[in-house]
Backbone:
């Protein structure tokens, strides 16, 4: 539970620092350019899930499934969000460590 809170706080920080992109179309564009890490909600549609997984795989971008759309939206200070891209290496590295820890637990 502690990791989940840390991840959500870090997402909020990344959003305020403008190092986070949200929304399916913008994230897909960002994966092609400079996304370092992508987070998709567990309740994303199968179509969206496949699209994002395929893009991340072909552009070699790390992908994590985490939380649901309301968690991600709340953390970033917006309404429900299904997919987020982190554009900063530092945030991506820290989030990656926390997400791996969270998924192990």
Residues:
């Amino acid at each position: 539970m502690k990791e989940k809170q840390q991840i959500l706080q870090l997402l909020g920080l990344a959003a305020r620092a403008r190092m986070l992109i949200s929304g399916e179309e913008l994230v897909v564009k960002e994966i092609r350019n400079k996304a370092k890490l992508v987070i998709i909600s567990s309740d994303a549609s199968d179509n969206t899930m496949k699209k994002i997984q395929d893009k991340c795989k072909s552009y070699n971008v790390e992908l994590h499934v985490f939380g649901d759309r309301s968690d991600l939206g709340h953390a970033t200070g917006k309404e429900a969000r299904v997919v987020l891209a982190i554009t900063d290496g530092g945030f991506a590295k820290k989030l990656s460590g926390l997400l791996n820890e969270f998924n192990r637990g």
About this structure: The domain at 2-104 is CATH 3.30.1330.30 (60s Ribosomal Protein L30; Chain: A;). Residues 76 and 93 are 18 Å apart (CA to CA). The longest helix spans residues 89-104. Strands lie at 20-22, 37-40, 62-65, 83-86.
